[in-house]
Write a structure and sequence with these properties.
The complex is a heterodimer. By secondary structure, chain A is α/β, with parallel strands linked by helices. Helices cover 34% and strands 19% of the residues of chain A. In chain A, strand 3 (31-36), helix 1 (53-59) and strand 4 (62-67) form a beta-alpha-beta unit. Chain A is globular and about 50 Å long. Classes of the chains: A alpha/beta, B alpha/beta.
C-alpha cells in the first residue's frame, strides 16, 4: 500500500487483522508513520472524513496510517482483548497487514500506552517513538482524576466535566468543537463506542495504568520523544518526567497552554514530531 | 397470582429533589457517606424489616429485598443478610432476593452457597433473583462493565450447575475457572429455587428469561405503564417462540403502590414521597444530572436510546395536573376501587401473575406505609386475586 499524494485527504479503508475489522485512515507521502489515537481524538470524536490539522501536517511529510483501536470507529473484536499483550500482538499483526516494517510510531494518550508497549516488546518494528501525553504509566503517589466518572453521560446538560479534564480551555472553541454539549446520534455512537474501547483495559483503577510498565521502560531501545501538554490533568508533570527518565535517551518537551489533547489543541506540534521523525520512518 | 411486598430500604433524609439537586449531582457513587447516620440507620432497619413482616401478617404471598451498593437509594449492600433475618421473622411467605449482582462476586459460587443457605434456613421459601448489577455499581466496585453481560450469563450457569450437578466437579469457563465446585449446603427446593431476573426492558434479557424458564420482573417506576406493557408483550412473544407454556407467575411487575380512602387523599399523601424516590434517590441512576452509566455496559445504540428517553422523561415532568403527574409513572396510587380496577386491567391485558409492590417508597413514613399496606392487603389483593384466578382459569393460562 502506498500513500496518497494529497496530504489533506486520507483514504478510509477497513482491513482484516486475524478476523477483526480495523478501520484505517491512510494518506501522505514519505517514510512510514503509524499514528495511534487518543481518548478524545480522531476515531473517538471524528469518524475520519479528513485528517485533523495535526495529522494533515504529518501527512505532508510521511505516509501516515492511523488505525482505530478496537471498539473505536468500526474496529471490531473488542471482546477478544483482555490484556495489554492482546493489544501489542494485534498492533504487530496490523503493521504486517499495512505492510509497514519499521515505522515511526506516534502514540497519543491511550495510543501512547500501546505504542510504548509495542516498542518494548518489538523494538525492531519501531524506528522511532513519539509519545504525546501517553497514558499507561503508574507512578506511585501521583494521583490522577478518574476519567470515566468525568465522562459519565448526563440526562440534561453536556460534557463540561469531560472537557475540563481533557482540555486546557474547557469552554474554548477547540474543546467545544471536540466535545459539544449536544451531540447528534452518529457522534454519540462514535463517542460511546470509543469509551467502551477505552474501558476494556483502562477501566481498571487507577485508570489507564499498568503496574508493570515502569520496571520495563528501560527496554525501549528506540529514539523516543515524550511530549506533554503543560496543563494536562490526566498525565501529570511527574508522570511525564518518569516516562522520559525511564526510557534510555528519551527527550521530554512540554507544550505550554495545552491540556491532554495536545494534537487537537496545538496542531503545530506536527512540526516538532516531523523534525524528530524525519529520516527515520 | 403472587402478591409480594418489595422493599428498597431507602435513606429518607436527603430532602426534596429541587433542593437536593441544587447541592449534589447524584444519590449514587459520590454522595458523601457522612450523610449516613448509623443511629438513624438502626431505627430504619428495624422499621423496614417490620414493614416486610407485616406483609406476612396481612396475607401477602412474599417479601422481596434487593442489592445496591454505595448509594442512598437502597441500604442493602447484602440483601442476603436481610433475607436471613426474614427466614426467622416469617414462617409462610416466599422470600425473594431480587437479586444478587453476580459479576460483583468472585467466585460467584459464593451466591450459590448463600442462597442455598437461605433456601434451607427458610424451609424452601427462597426465590433466587440474579442480576447483572446496576450501572452505578460498576463505578462503585470497579468491576469491568465491558463484559458485564457475558460474565453474568456464565456466572448464572455456574450457580445453576453448583445447585444441580453432583459435586465435586470442575468448571472451566471464559471468566471463571474452578477446579473444585462442591458447595455445602445444597438448596432444599429441587432441582433449584425459582430464578427471577429483573429488567428495565432489554430485549435480550426478556428473550433469555423466556428461553430458560426464568421469571422476568419488569422494573416500572421510572417509565410510564406503556413501557412495561411493551416488555410484557415481548415476554409473551419470546415464550411462544421458545415453545414454552406461559406461566403468569413468571411475568412480574415492580411498581409503586399507595392506597388511601380516596384518590385525592392518596395522590396528595404519596406525591412528595414519590417525588423524593424518583427525583432525589434515583438521581444518578436516571437524569437529569449525571447518569452513572458505564461504558460498554449496554451497546451504544441502546445507550443513545436510554439517554433520549431520560431527556424525554425530564421534559415531560414539567409541572402539570398533580394527579396526572403521579399517575403517569405510578398508576397504582388511589382509592381501593381505583387501584383494584387498574391492577386487574393490567393483569388481564398483560397476563402478569406477579405483582411486586413497592409499598414503602422514598421518604414515605411508617404510619402512611402501614395504613396503605393494610388497605392494599385487605381491600385490593383479595379481589384481584379472585378475579385473576377466574381470568386465567377461563383462558386455561398457566400450569
Amino acid at each position: 500500500m502506498s500513500g496518497s499524494v494529497d496530504g489533506a485527504a486520507p483514504r478510509r479503508v477497513v482491513i482484516d487483522v486475524a478476523g477483526r475489522a480495523v478501520t484505517v485512515l491512510r494518506g501522505g507521502v514519505g517514510g512510514h508513520l503509524v499514528y495511534l489515537h487518543g481518548l478524545c481524538d480522531l476515531h473517538a470524536i471524528d469518524a475520519g472524513e479528513r485528517w485533523t490539522p495535526f495529522l494533515a501536517g504529518l501527512a505532508a511529510h510521511f505516509d501516515v496510517a492511523a488505525p482505530a483501536l478496537p471498539g473505536y470507529n468500526g474496529s471490531s473484536g473488542l471482546e477478544q482483548f483482555d490484556d495489554v499483550e492482546d493489544y501489542v500482538w494485534h498492533l504487530v499483526d496490523l503493521f504486517d497487514a499495512l505492510d509497514v516494517e519499521r515505522p515511526v510510531v506516534v502514540g497519543h494518550s491511550l495510543g501512547g500506552w500501546f505504542a510504548a508497549e509495542v516498542a518494548l516488546r518489538r523494538p525492531e518494528r519501531v524506528a522511532a517513538l513519539a509519545l504525546v501525553d501517553p497514558l499507561g504509566l503508574h507512578v506511585p503517589g501521583v494521583e490522577v482524576p478518574p476519567f470515566f466518572g468525568a465522562v459519565a453521560p448526563r440526562g440534561i446538560g453536556g460534557l463540561g466535566e469531560a472537557r475540563a479534564l481533557l482540555f486546557a480551555d474547557p469552554e474554548g472553541p477547540c474543546a467545544v468543537a471536540a466535545l459539544p454539549d449536544t451531540m447528534v446520534r452518529h457522534q454519540q455512537l462514535l463517542w460511546f463506542g470509543g469509551l467502551a474501547g477505552a474501558a476494556r483495559l483502562g477501566w481498571k483503577a487507577p485508570h489507564f495504568q499498568s503496574r508493570k510498565l515502569a520496571q520495563r521502560l528501560g527496554r525501549i531501545r528506540v529514539p523516543t520523544l515524550v511530549v506533554r501538554g503543560g496543563l494536562d490533568r490526566l498525565v501529570p508533570a511527574a508522570t511525564a518526567r518518569a516516562w522520559a527518565a525511564g526510557i534510555p535517551g528519551a527527550r521530554l518537551t512540554e507544550v505550554g497552554g495545552a491540556g491532554h489533547c495536545v494534537p487537537l489543541e496545538s496542531p503545530e506540534l506536527a512540526a516538532e514530531v516531523q523534525v524528530f521523525g524525519t529520516g527515520r520512518g | 397470582m403472587n402478591f409480594f411486598s418489595f422493599h428498597l430500604m431507602p435513606w429518607p433524609y436527603l430532602g426534596p429533589p429541587r433542593e437536593f439537586l441544587a447541592e449534589h449531582e447524584a444519590a449514587w457513587v459520590t454522595l458523601p457517606n457522612a450523610f449516613y447516620d448509623p443511629m438513624k440507620g438502626q431505627a430504619l432497619y428495624e422499621r423496614y424489616l417490620e414493614e416486610l413482616v407485616d406483609a406476612e401478617r396481612l396475607g401477602l404471598d412474599g417479601v422481596v429485598v434487593n442489592e445496591h451498593h454505595q448509594n442512598a437509594y437502597g441500604l442493602m449492600p447484602s440483601p442476603n443478610l436481610m433475607a436471613a433475618a426474614l427466614t426467622r421473622e416469617t414462617s409462610r411467605v416466599r422470600i425473594c432476593v431480587l437479586g444478587n449482582a453476580l459479576p460483583l462476586y468472585n467466585p460467584p459460587t459464593r451466591v450459590a452457597e448463600e442462597m442455598a443457605m437461605l433456601d434451607v434456613m427458610s424451609g424452601g421459601r427462597l426465590i433466587a433473583g440474579l442480576v447483572v448489577g446496576g450501572g452505578p455499581e460498576y463505578y462503585s466496585t470497579n468491576v469491568n462493565p465491558t463484559d458485564a453481560r457475558p460474565r453474568f450469563r456464565e456466572a448464572l450457569e455456574l450457580v445453576l450447575q453448583a445447585w444441580t450437578r453432583p459435586g465435586p466437579f470442575s468448571f472451566d469457563g471464559e471468566y471463571y475457572q474452578l477446579p473444585y465446585v462442591n458447595p455445602w449446603p445444597r438448596p432444599l427446593q429441587q432441582p433449584h429455587p425459582p430464578v427471577w431476573i429483573p429488567g428495565l426492558g432489554s430485549p435480550s434479557t426478556i428473550a433469555y428469561c423466556a428461553e430458560r424458564g426464568f421469571g422476568y420482573m419488569g422494573v416500572a417506576y421510572y417509565a410510564p405503564p406503556e413501557s412495561f406493557g411493551r416488555q410484557a408483550t415481548a415476554y409473551h412473544e419470546a415464550v411462544a417462540r421458545a415453545g414454552r407454556r406461559f406461566d403468569p407467575e413468571l411475568l412480574g411487575w415492580l411498581t409503586t403502590v399507595y392506597v388511601a380512602d380516596t384518590d385525592e387523599q392518596a395522590v396528595a399523601e404519596a406525591a412528595p414521597h414519590l417525588a423524593y424516590f424518583q427525583g432525589t434517590l434515583a438521581a444518578g441512576f436516571v437524569g437529569p444530572g449525571k447518569v452513572w452509566m458505564p461504558p460498554g455496559y449496554i451497546d451504544p445504540p441502546a445507550l443513545v436510546q436510554f439517554l433520549a428517553e431520560l431527556r424525554g422523561m425530564v421534559e415531560r415532568s414539567r409541572p402539570d395536573d398533580p394527579r396526572q403527574a403521579v399517575w403517569r409513572r405510578s398508576p397504582l396510587v388511589g382509592s381501593p376501587e381505583t387501584v383494584r380496577t387498574r391492577l386487574l386491567a393490567f393483569v388481564r391485558e398483560l397476563g402478569i401473575g406477579t405483582v411486586l409492590a413497592l409499598l414503602q417508597f422514598g421518604s414515605l413514613p411508617h404510619d402512611l406505609t402501614a395504613r396503605s399496606t393494610r388497605l392494599y392487603a385487605t381491600e385490593v389483593v383479595p379481589y384481584v386475586r379472585a378475579e385473576a384466578q377466574k381470568h386465567f382459569r377461563a383462558r386455561q393460562i398457566g400450569p
